[in-house]
Each structure stands twice: as structure tokens, then as C-alpha cells.
Queue: 3 jobs
Job 1
Amino acid sequence: MILDCGGTTLDLARPRVMGILNVTPDSFSDGGRFVAPDAATRQAERMLAEGADILDVGGESTRPGADAVSEAHELERVVPVIEHLRARFDVPISIDTSKPAVMRAAVAAGAAMINDVTALRAPQAIATAASLGVPLCLMHMQGEPRTMQRDPQYGDIVADIMAYLADRITACEAAGIDRSRILIDPGFGFGKTLDHNLELLARLRAFAALGVPVLVGISRKSMLGAVTGRAVDERLAASVAAALIAVERGAAIVRVHDVGPTVDALKLWIATTSGAAAAGA
């Protein structure tokens, strides 16, 4: 599949790496480090040099227990950074937001994709996304960031999440959004226990049945800490392993903090799974 991001295309025939750029003071891993446009630009430059295919800019933390951010504050955080990045780099920029006004302003500033953890459930979000004409990622979340980890429950987690995402895809298509613009994210860590997350990763291939590309974000998350016993800044190896598992099980895009190591691992995976490598074995 070819993803058209505002005239820049991404061929999803090979896995792509989305670099995380949080311009927030309270994100779980790197809060406060890249709030200023100059700091964000330096981080973007670093990630692009390491091989990032797309940058995901977010101005509101969605970690468990996070407080909501006003529309005005989110706009103040993301718009200058997107404008700065767009002027400096020829790379697709994604806006990580659930607010229609932020979507509009971010796309006007140069963003070419919408990444929404609420799957366009806010009032007017679907209509806004339809009018903007950029690709969008629909993520599953049970509850909201402030409450999502309070005893999440599922029948069959994969079937439940697939049904939810199928419904959101249908709603988008009914609003005039072409299926070729839609990606899905099962939402690791968003209203899921450790067992839920592990089962979701183990059965990730099932999401191919929805017929749209899958984006996965597991980088540095608490599920990795629970398995390894590592603190958030010690989860590089687990994050890279999780990204590789996700790609092996069908993910088209992996959203990561540590771009360079992930890109290197994927290069090796691609080299050992390509037809040329198989022919030379």
C-alpha cells in the first residue's frame, strides 16, 4: 500500500518507523525535553539521521492518569514546532491529537497525518478529518487516560478491539474518508492489563483481516518494564524486540522513541526475509 502524506508517499511494502516527538512537560518517557522548538528540531534532526520515515508530534500526554490539556495550550505547544519542522525537513509529520481544532491548525502548519488515540470520537472529529484529506490512524482505548487502567475488562480482547476498530472504519467511510487513508492501532497500554497487552501482541496478525495498515506503539511502555523489571530509561532492548515482533506479525509502522536501534534491527530483519536472502541461503 502507498500512503499519500500530503504529496510525500510512504510505500508500506516495507515496515516504516515513526519517531515520537513529545512537546509536553509530562509524557511518561521524555516529558519536558523537547518542548522548545529548537530542542524539538534537534531531536527531529537526530531521528531523521537515524532513519525515521515519519515524525509524530504530540502536545498532550496520554499516559495513564494524565490530566487533560486545554485546546489553547495544545495549540501553543504543537503549531510552532510543526511549522519549524516543516520549514527545515522534507518528511511527513503526524499530529497526535484528538481535538478537531488542533487537527485543523496542525495540518495548516504542515502536518500530513492525524494520529488520534480516541479514533475520531470527539464531536466533529470525523467531519474535520474528512475535510482535511490526510491519512489518519484510529486507535483503540478503553476509557480515557485518567481512568483507563482501572480494572479494564474484555471478553476476547482481540475480537473486542477488532469489532471496535471495524466500527470506527465504517464510520469514517460513511463520512467520506477513503479506506486508503485509514490506519489502525490496537492501543497497547490504553485500557489493558499486562496479560491483555501480551495476548494482543501474540495475536497481532489477526488485525490484517480489517484490510488496513496496522500501526503499533509499544516503545518503552510499562508492559515492557513489567516483563523485564527495567525502568523506563532501561527498556531499549525490550522496545526493539517488541517492534520486531510487531513487524513480524504484520505491523506496517512502528512508533518508537529509539529510532536508530529500531531501524538497524529492521534492516537485518528485512535482509533475512527478502527473496534475495532466501535465494542465497
Job 2
Amino acid sequence: MNNKNKKVSAIILLVVTATMWSLGGLLIKSINAHPLAIAGTRSAISCIIMILYVKKPKFNWSFTQIAAGVAYASMVITFVFSTKLTTAANAILLEYTAPIFVALLSAWMLKEKPKAIDWVTIMLVFGGMVLFFLDSLDAKGFAGNIFGLLSGISYALFTVFMRMQKNGSPIESVILGNAISAIVGIPFIFMSVPDFKGWLFLVILGVVQLGIPYIMYSEAIKNASALEASIITMIEPILNPIWVVLIIGEIPGVLSIIGGIIVIATVAIRCVILSSTKHTDEENLNEKMEVKSIAS
């Protein structure tokens, strides 16, 4: 397969991956069970799928590998709580505030100095985030938004700890995170045992919504640029609430919709600008190398 076909295949895989991820809100809301039970069972099934794919996972039990696993478990658990307590739109869009926390955490943990665009992004996304809370004045909705925010922070920590393993094998952190989530959550299944439909949706969550998409993403990212991966996976926060609106009829408030547009647009524009800057820097570096080569 030539490079062009590999690129097309990668883009198709990313579109399918993001679409499968987007089923999370609808499926979680359709299961009558404790949020921890949903998170744990979904992760247990996903963990099995990933181990079958990796075959021989390499656990080094380093701090970063374990920390990434804990952050992942926190991310998936708080996301399920958020989806159960507030609208699917609020849950997924608050999780996608992660880039602002990545920028802040990177300055502290990775010593990567935030750029001016990062601070602009932080202010805009924070403004959009405030609208979610203004739109959810009841206790349940407010708690759901808090869990959504915690999911975004966990997502950011997961990203930073995964980045620390860029020269290793970070997929093991995802397997470990799913195992942690399973251990914590599965015992809660006995608090409210799902019916047949609930079990069916749990299997779909573990296999179709979490397990297979992560495998597809790991393959697609090999032949897609960071920009393509970032922009295409934005399909998830867009489709997630749409499935819920169409099938369950849950409609987010006007302020939440405005906040969501601000969050998604800001994050997408940031991805484009940073990618363009990186491309320009690489071109300048190549030109300098060529000049140096000619001079020598």
C-alpha cells in the first residue's frame, strides 16, 4: 500500500473511531446501573479486547506508566458519572476542556512553556466552561458538571503521563487503567443488576465504544498527522449529544450549546494554528540545514 492509500485509510479509521467513541453518551444513559458498575464493566471488557490485540503487554511498573493508568481510570469513571448526572453534551464537552489543563500541567510537569495561544485558549475555553455551570443551577446538574470537569483534568493528566512515555510502550497504561477501573467498579454491579438490554449495551460499550476504537486509533495515528487526528476526532463531542437528542430526546440548554461551540471551536482553531506553526518551524529548520550543507 502506497503512502497516499495509507493516508486515506488512516483518515477513514479516524472517522470510524470517533464515531464509535461518540456512542458513549447514548449507551451510558440507556443502562440502568450504578455509574461505577458501568465504568468498571465497560473497562473490563475493553481490557480483554486490548490484551488480545497486544498479546504480550510489557509492564515496567514505572511511575509514569502507573500514573497514566490511574489518570485513565479516573477519566473514564468521572465521565460516566458526569453523563449520568448531567446532559451528554455537557459531559463530553467538559471532558474536551482537557487541552487547557494540558497546557497548564505541561508547564509544571514537562517544563514546556505555554505559548501566547495557549493562554488565549485557556481564557476562551474557561469562558465557555462557565456557561455550562450557569445553565445547570440544580444540584444534580451541577454535580454532573463537576464530574465532567474532573474528567477533563484526568484526561489532561493522562495525556501528560502518556507523553512522558513517548519512547516506551504507552498502550500498557491504557490496559492498566482499564484494569483499575474494572477492579473499582465491577463490585457495584450488585447494587442494581442490569437487565438483558443493559448487559447488551455494556458489551457494546466495552467492545465497540472503547476496545476496538482504541486499537483502530493506535493504527491510524501511525499514518495520520497530529492535526488530522485532533480535528477528525472532534467528531466525537459533536455526534455524542446528537445521538442522545435523536434517540432519547435530551436537549442541552442554550447556554450549554453556546459554551460547547466556544470550547470546540477554540480547541480546533488552536490545533490548526499550532500545527501550522510546527510545519513552518520544520521548514525553516530544513532550510537552515540545506544552507549549512551547501556552505560546507
Job 3
Amino acid sequence: MAKYLIDTHTHIHDPTDRELSAADTFRHAHELGIDKIITIGTDPQNSLQAKEFAEEWAGKGERIFWTYGFHPNEYVEKDRANLTNTLNMASEALKSPQNVGVGEIGLDYHFDGYSVEMQRELLLEMLQLAQDNRKPVSFHVRDAFGDFWPIFDNFKLPTSVMHSFSDSKKNLAEALKRGLYIGVNGLSTFADIAHPPLERAVFETDAPYLTPKQFRGTMNKPGYVKYVAEWAAEYYKVEFGEVARITTENAEKIFKI
């Protein structure tokens, strides 16, 4: 049985995305049984902030890792002219010993004002970055799977994760068919959504977002993975320790941590 859990998707490197100090955030996580944390970049500057944060705290003994991401909603017209330079800098950043992947990246057609062309352009470049560097990906896809699957299918990636999946059973089946694992978070504790088999799940918080049911209205924290795991033990009718073992082994395998 696993003695600890992993938060595979959080944003704690940004001080505005946590209510505790970094030291207290780690302390709180350890008290609740979370031993490893992956903090996720959302644009070039934010990703380098994640890098610096992970490297600093790893140097202090924390098991903290990071990913280089460019969220589809963060890519705006002014970024296009500098995209080649951005990707070159990203390739260098991926050499960081604490880097474990690319993400979050994907497509998001949920809000008005998006550009399909620009989002697809960025996704193609970021997938090439991941493929060239043999890095797993944390995907963010919302209301866009019709466009996403044909793009995804053109790349050969290491085993990767569909972050915070909340779409149809059909698209869940498509994700599982393609070997993707599914990020399960606080959303599962209060929303009627499709769930993967436990063998294909990893836990995440997406902190400070998607706080589990019992803490709705407050900022999420990596420590709250414990409550996602408690929900999963009840939902899957499996002992908590077995839930921890399966999801921890999944995360360690995918991200090589």
C-alpha cells in the first residue's frame, strides 16, 4: 500500500494561486499525506516561474516538479511574432532536472473571442516540443475534442494525462483508447461527470481551483488531494491505501518521479 499521494497538477508556484506561504503549503500537504507535487506552467513567463520555484524548493528537500505550458486561452496575437524564440527558450528550460513534462496545453473553445486558428497553431508547436523532447503532456481540452483528436493522432508522445476531464463518456473512451490517463480532482466530488477506471487515474487539485465539495468557496491546496482520494475510495469501493497505491504508481510511471 502506498504511504503517500501525489498532486499531479497544481499552480502553487504563483503566489496569487495560494493562500499560504510556500513553506506552509508544503507543510500542509505533508500533514495530509501528499509527498510529491507537480506545479504546472500556463504561459512562457509563468512556466519559467514554475521552473525557478521547483528548483528552489527541490534544493530545500521538497519533492516538487514542474511542467512548461502555454494554455490555449493565454496565447494572444502579440505572442505569434515571438513564438519561434519562445519555443527555443522552452527547449532549454526542459533540460531542468525538475522538469517532468509539457503542459498545460490544448484547445479551449468554451469562452467567446477565441481564435481556432491560433489555438491549433500553438497546440501543433507545443506537441512538437513535447515529441522532440520525449516529454509527457498535461492536456487541457474543453468543448474542442472534435478538433483535438485529429491533431493529437499525428504525434507520438510518451504516456500523457488528460487534465480535469469533464466531457462525454464517448470522449472519455477516446482518451482511454489512445492510452491517456485521466486527472481526477475535486470536480469529481460534486459534479456529475464521467470517471475513468481507477487503473487509468491520477489525482490532482488544479489548486487554487476546483476545491473538493467540503471546502467549496475556499482556495484549493495540494493537501486536498487527500479528500479526492477519500472520494475515490468510496466511489470505486476500494480501500484508501489501494487507491493511493494505484494512482501514485500511475503518476510515478508517467512523470518518472
